[in-house]
Structures are given as structure tokens and as C-alpha cells.
Amino acid sequence: MSKETPMMASTSLSDMIFMLLFFFMVTTNMRKAEVKVQHRLPIATEVKKLENRSLVTYINIGVPILAHQKLHGTATRVQLNDKFADVDDIQEFIASEREMKSESDQRLMTTALRIDENVRMGTVVDVKQTLRKCGALKIAYMANKGNTVF
Block means of pLDDT (10 residues each) for the chain, length 150 residues? Predict the structure, then answer.
């Protein structure tokens, strides 16, 4: 009688592979755009969270952070994803963001504005006018929740 080593059962191998795949999908952070402008958000009393963040496009408006001030100065700048841009570039940016979404999701897209509380309103009005021209009418303003005293 010879002793043979039993064959390895491969039925649980696929389960282990799917568990590992699921683990890495859950623990991996998706890349977010690096914020290059200072934005101390204003305080608001009525705040609600945005639903379905995959349909949200962020526009940051503020003074460049210290690491970027040598290259970009200290004037108020608009940041679209990872790069600084002019107000005129917003239409092209929104169009490219829409192209990445399905047709049914395009009407649900929201543009979230993260605006430093010290930014002049003229810049904000220019951005809003440009968003209106390109049909991005669903706008959310980012704010911190808190109590305001008047």
C-alpha cells in the first residue's frame, strides 16, 4: 500500500480570490483632486449632505496655498480638478465632465462650489454666469455646519 498525497481541493480557491478582490476594492481609496487653494468655508445653519457624490463636480475658488503661491501668485484663483484655470475654461471643463457620465446621469449632475469666505463676490458671479451659459444649473455651495450669531 502506497500513500498518495491527496489532491488539493480547488473549489474554495475561487472564493478566496473573490474575498481578496472584495477586500482590496473596499480598502482602496479612490483618487481625489488635490486642493491647491485655501478655502475656509463659511458657516451655515441649514446644511445637508450631497447624495451620489459620483455625480458631483467640484470647483474650488480661493487664494493658492503657500506651496503654490510662488508659481501662481496670491490673487484669487479658480481650480478645476488638479489644475488652476480661468473662468473661461469652466465651459470646457463641464462639457468634459458631462461626457464621462451616462446620458441619464448628465441631468442629475451637481456642481459644488468650495469658495473661501474671503473671496470677492465678483469672481463668484463670473463663475455662476459661466455655469449658467453651459447649462450647469444645479449648484451646491459647500459650507461648514455651525451656529451663526448676528
Answer: 72 83 78 79 86 89 84 88 92 94 91 93 96 94 78
Rounded distance between C-alpha atoms, residue 43 and residue 80, angstroms: 23
pTM for this predicted structure: 0.73
What total number of domains does the chain contain? 1
What CATH code is carried by the domain that includes residue 85? 3.30.420.270
Residue 3 lies in a domain: no
DSSP state at residue 83: E
What's the confidence (pLDDT) of residue 87?
A: 94
Q: Determine, yes or no, domain membership for 15.
A: no
Other Cβ atoms within 10 Å of 72 Cβ, number: 15
Domain span at 137:
43-145
Is residue 102 a contact partner of residue 27, using CB atoms and an 8 Å limit? Answer: no
Question: Does 31 fall in a domain?
Answer: no
Dist CA 24 CA 3 (whole Å): 40
Q: Nearest-CA neighbor of 125 among 109, 110, 104, 139? A: 139
Q: Is residue 17 part of a domain?
A: no
How does strand 144-145 pair with strand 43-44? parallel
